[in-house]
Design a protein that fits this description.
There is one protein chain. The chain is α/β, with parallel strands linked by helices. It has 13 helices and 21 strands. Strands 1, 2, 3, 4, 5, 6 and 19 form a seven-stranded mixed beta sheet that branches. Strands 8-15-9-10-11 form a five-stranded parallel beta sheet, covered by helices on one side. It has a three-stranded antiparallel beta sheet with strand order 12-13-14, with no helix packed on it. Helix 4 (150-160) links the parallel strand 9 and strand 10 (164-170). The N and C termini lie close together (8 Å). The structure holds flavin-adenine dinucleotide. Residues 10-16, 33-36, 41-43, 75-76, 103-108, 125, 128, 150, 153, 249, 252, 255, 289-290, 296-297, 300, 409 line the site of flavin-adenine dinucleotide.
Length: 424
């Protein structure tokens, strides 16, 4: 018999957990699934050494409280009608829904520059995730670079796990950062958080208007040993064992695109378009959190609660809508402050690898009018990450807009693909 839920939530981050809690509170039969084995999404990712914050523990507990069904380690790989094909490490099956909430979150934007494929260079959020999973960092010299508040969060986690954070190189100009800080009084919770981060990062230089131009290998040419940076003081070389670099976040759009949800521009990228009740352009499909644009954990929670109520057919209190407006205003201020400068777009040269899965350089893409043509001729975007990294980078660099999604969304077993039709 087919499994059917009144409300099926994809993503057990802050948005999905809030949606599940709100929908279950209305008496709906709710399931929340996530590709990860533990709930929490990115910001509440499990840390092997440190206990979760009170907010994370409460959010996870309330979002998975029975009778909500928690489907851990479950990836959505395809969709048809009112059903999703999901895969666990053991099996595959179709899940049917009355209403679907997409809370698929965001991922880091990684941009190519000379040396970015050297061992020792990782994404800023990836470095944070590695630290939380127990990657040995004690005494390692780490440069954190790129753009956005995630750099501060990542640096804090790395330090808490014993790394020596050499510097945080933020591409946004110092004047923009000062203006942003001066306006934080409008969001007292964020002001408090910023003060806490400042204390936790005491002694770590935070350098505005500074970009990493290249990652430099040791004499044997293998491992990272230093980075070349450019900023208001000119160019410098910083010795390090690890570079954690990311240029902000972009929405995870694969499932929304596969379903056919209308999208809206999010810089050079896209986000799911929703109305006041977090309803997408499709009947029975809602979306919440960073899939709708990058807004931070508070915005994700509020949008999740609205989507959960709406998906369960309940009224949405005006207070929640007001709080979402306030949270989105913070998101807009973040976007203005951390908008990428042209210097960042010019870091890669013709011989810089852009598709690291298939060894394709930026110069090899010259003359191709779109991503499809580039793929056919060079295999760009056809490797293990399926264009998740290079596709986003090329969109950001203004080369090609991001292409659509095709099933399977994640690498799938042949036995999974054999479940081609949903049971009714
Ligand atoms: C790498 C990284 C690190 C971050 N660290 C911080 C931080 O330290 N502090 C902070 O304030 N903010 C951080 N953020 C921002 C943070 O993501 C948000 O503020 C908040 O977590 C957004 O919540 P969300 O529920 O929208 O998405 P997320 O927390 O991203 O949750 C989305 C979930 O959906 C799941 N998912 C996506 N697609 C599928 C699919 N097809 N099948 C199954 N599951 C799927 C993912 O596994 C994920 O768990 C980070 C973001 C990233 C990308």
């Amino acid at each position: 018999m087919a499994e059917r839920y009144d409300v099926l939530v994809v993503g057990a981050g802050p948005a999905g957990l809030a949606a599940a809690q709100a929908a279950a509170g209305q008496g709906a039969r709710v399931a929340v699934l996530d590709a990860q084995p533990r709930a929490g999404g990115q910001v509440w990712r499990h840390d092997v050494r440190h206990a979760p914050s009170a907010a994370a523990a409460r959010g996870i507990h309330d979002g998975l409280k029975p009778p909500i069904e928690w489907l851990a380690g479950t990836s959505v790989v395809a969709a048809q009608g009112d059903a999703l094909l999901v895969q666990t490490p053991q099996a595959a099956r179709w899940l049917h829904y009355g209403n679907l909430v997409l809370a698929t979150g965001a991922r880091e934007l990684l941009l190519p520059f000379p040396g970015w494929t050297l061992p020792g260079v990782v994404g800023a959020g990836a470095a944070q995730a590695l630290a939380k999973q127990g990657w040995p960092l004690a005494g390692k010299r780490v440069v954190v670079a790129g753009s956005g508040p995630l750099l501060l969060a990542a640096a804090t986690t790395l330090r808490a796990h014993g790394a020596h954070v050499v510097a945080i190189c933020e591409q946004a100009e110092a004047s923009a950062l000062r203006g942003f800080a001066a306006g934080l009084w409008r969001w007292p919770g964020k002001l408090l958080q910023a003060g806490r981060l400042r204390l936790q990062l005491a002694g770590v230089p935070y350098r505005g208007g500074t970009v990493v131009q290249r990652a430099l290998p040791a004499a044997d040419g293998c491992l990272l040993r230093a980075v070349g940076i450019a900023g208001p003081r000119g160019t410098e070389r910083l010795a390090c064992d690890m570079l954690a670099v990311g240029y902000g976040l972009i929405p995870n759009m694969e499932l929304a695109r596969l379903l056919g949800c209308a999208t809206q521009a999010f810089g050079a990228h896209a986000a799911v378009q929703v109305d006041a009740r977090q309803h997408t352009s499709l009947d029975h499909v809602y979306a919440a959190g960073e899939a709708c644009g990058i807004g931070g954990v508070d915005c994700a929670r509020i949008e999740g609660a609205i989507a959960g109520l709406a998906a369960a057919g309940a009224a949405v209190p005006a207070g929640l809508l007001r709080r979402r407006g306030h949270a989105r205003a913070f998101a807009a201020a973040l976007r203005r402050t951390f908008a990428l400068r042209p210097q960042v777009h010019a870091l890669a040269s013709a011989d810089t690898l852009v598709c690291r899965c298939e060894d394709v350089t930026l110069g090899m893409l010259d003359g191709h009018a779109d991503f499809r043509s580039a793929k056919l001729a060079t295999r760009c975007g056809m490797g293990a990450c399926q264009g998740r990294i290079c596709g986003a980078a090329l969109a950001e660099l203004g080369r090609f807009p991001h292409a659509g999604s095709r099933p399977p969304l994640f690498p799938a077993r042949l036995s999974t693909l054999a479940h081609a039709e949903p049971a009714s």
